[in-house]
Amino acid sequence: MKKLINGPEDVVREELQGIEEAHGDRVRVSYDPNYIVRKDAPVQNKAAIISGGGSGHEPMHGGFVGMGMLDAACPGEVFTSPTPDQILAATQAVSGGKGVLHIVKNYTGDILNFEMAADLARGEGIEVEAVVIDDDVAVKDSLYTAGRRGVGATVLAEKICGAAAEGGASLRQVADLCRKVNANGRSMGMALTSCTVPAAGKPTFELGEDEMEIGIGIHGEPGRERRQLATADEIVEMLAQPIVDDLPYGPGDKVLAFVNGMGGTPLIELYVAYHALYKYLHGRGITIERNLIGPYITSLEMAGCSITLLKLDDETRRLWDAPVNTPGLRWGV
Amino acid sequence: MKKLINGPEDVVREELQGIEEAHGDRVRVSYDPNYIVRKDAPVQNKAAIISGGGSGHEPMHGGFVGMGMLDAACPGEVFTSPTPDQILAATQAVSGGKGVLHIVKNYTGDILNFEMAADLARGEGIEVEAVVIDDDVAVKDSLYTAGRRGVGATVLAEKICGAAAEGGASLRQVADLCRKVNANGRSMGMALTSCTVPAAGKPTFELGEDEMEIGIGIHGEPGRERRQLATADEIVEMLAQPIVDDLPYGPGDKVLAFVNGMGGTPLIELYVAYHALYKYLHGRGITIERNLIGPYITSLEMAGCSITLLKLDDETRRLWDAPVNTPGLRWGV
């Protein structure tokens, strides 16, 4: 296992210390239980937004805490759900009197623990709504999920809902918006290589030198099929076709196109993939109005990419463009 | 070779097409010869700044074209210097009457070709100054360089000089500032794995499962030594110690600390490394006033990191903080 780490058991704590030392102007970090909150939390009279999940997907979610996006993030151990007490503590820390939205990716452990934390918070008089993101069209059920997995649309929902909350929207409005983003977003990913969970010390799965996994999950869980390595144009079509067919997206649609790196794939390849996606969508009359290209929802050092499309309307486009000031996404400030 | 590409010969052109399709709101791309310019080039009565070098280091340099940073970037083929005609064409395209600065990383081919282009441009009446960046303390001479290589300080120089030019500084002032950044910046890098140049199809070098290369160059050229794999704390000390000793940096110094990913190393590990660097510098009385953490000067899919320190003063700190609007670095707008 070749990683820039000290002990496998130290990775998450030391990562959080690094985030605190680097971004103390914008966030505060709590340890035991672990969570990251915006520095000015709790923001009074603003619907607060929390997300969380296993570590190993950075910058998601800790890198998205700050003005215009998340109020808090709860990082579990690598690829491990955060615990209810973490989520509860973060919920208490950000509650500013207007309720708290939990944005939850659809993994069984995450769902259970967020639900338990929401119940406990409600018992303390905090209004909590939860929205489950399940945008991955690759497989119906998987190793860790009943139904579809939550992947790239989570990043877009956090940005768009964060802008709405910053603008004064109510908890109900922000939750409805989150459901709308999930309803209009679809994703699929692929891997060229496996990743290695530090505590496991060996690759999660094996892929031959001329193989790739299409429909991979962000924890290396199996996808649709293992195939012979193909060109970028072919790979992008294998991902984009099921996405476009699923919603479906059609001529005249305007979308945000998100080409995400899995952690080990460099930007030069993501731009080649973006070009392939641009050609593919252009040929189907679908217009890319906004884009996001880079490693935003990663799977440790896995090589590969995922594609997310989000159908835009005036509201979601405006909220996407609104100022954001987080370590991972920043513009307008 | 596992990459998201079509043919090896198509990588750079398709990457540029992707950049043009994604960022057409901010940049224009020219093909044959290849260069990227800010959309509003030439900006009249502003000193223009150009950089360039081989592709494979993205987002450097193409991702740094835009308001507050570069006026143009000249990407060569992967790990191959741009040609004089590319650089000349870019120089002509951005010349707004106040001269053009060439920021050149110290590699023999880059130096020769930038010099030739500068001579040709001067022959056409364009005032050109060139500053060579040579911040890598790892080795004195290397496979492609006489003297020290130019690495991470290049990114910082482009940002800081870009802000000065945007603010109305003269060509001479911007060039002097660039020399100051180079004089106050030092870097060193390491690799956990090799990278594979698409046209070569096989790894540039071999590293055993328990080996790493300390002092690696951004093209995979040899460093100081090949060592047994170590912890993040030990690795960071192996990089930081020669940097700190070289300038030297000492108690009371205020620095920008840049922890750079080589392309295949995910953000979670870079934050662990940043934490190690923070501890190391704190113990020596050196204060980190600004930071940059992520893959900004990469070496294709190489796993590893580099550290750059830049001693800050009021001028460079203010210029670092100034607004920038490029695909790769953006804040304040």
Write down the CATH class of the largest domain in chain A.
Alpha Beta
Helical residue percent of chain A?
25-40%
- Whole-number total of structural domains of chain A: 2
Please indicate the percent range of residues of chain A in DSSP E strands (runs of 2 or more): 15-25%
Mean pLDDT score of chain A, rounded?
A: 97
Pair of chains with the largest interface and how many residues each contributes: A-B, 61 and 61 residues
Helix-strand pattern of chain A = HEEEEHEHEHHEEEHEHEEHEE
**How many strands appear in the DSSP assignment of chain A?**
14
- Poorly predicted runs of chain A are none
Tell me the span between the first and last alpha carbons of chain A: 40 Å
CATH architecture field of the largest domain in chain A: 3-Layer(aba) Sandwich
Helical run tally of chain A: 8
Let me know the largest β-sheet of chain A.
Answer: 6 strands, mixed
**What radius of gyration of chain A results from the CA coordinates?**
19 Å
Class computed from helices, strands and strand pairing of chain A = alpha/beta
Question: Explain this structure to me?
Answer:
2 copies of one chain form a homodimer. By secondary structure, chain A is of the alpha/beta class. Chain A folds into 2 domains: about 10-185, 3-Layer(aba) Sandwich (Rossmann fold), CATH 3.40.50; about 185-320, Hypothetical Protein Tm841, Chain: A,domain 3. Chain A has 8 helices and 14 strands. Chain A has helices spanning about 10-25, 85-95, 110-125, 155-165, 170-185, 230-245, 265-280, 315-320, and strands spanning about 25-30, 35-40, 50-55, 70-80, 100-105, 130-135, 185-190, 210-215, 225-230, 255-260, 285-295, 305-310, 325, 330. In chain A, the strands form 3 sheets. In chain A, strands 1-2-4-3-5-6 form a 6-stranded mixed β-sheet, with helices on both faces. In chain A, strands 9-8-7-12-10-11 form a 6-stranded mixed β-sheet. Chain A has a two-stranded antiparallel ribbon with strand order 13-14. In chain A, strand 1 (about 25-30) and strand 2 form a beta hairpin. The longest helix of chain A has 16 residues, at about 110-125. The radius of gyration of chain A is 19 Å and the shape is globular. The first copy, chain A, starts with 10 loop residues before the first helix and ends with a strand. The model of chain A has no long low-confidence stretch (mean pLDDT about 95). At the A-B interface, helix 1, helix 6, helix 7, strand 11 and strand 14 of A face helix 1, helix 6, helix 7, strand 11 and strand 14 of B.
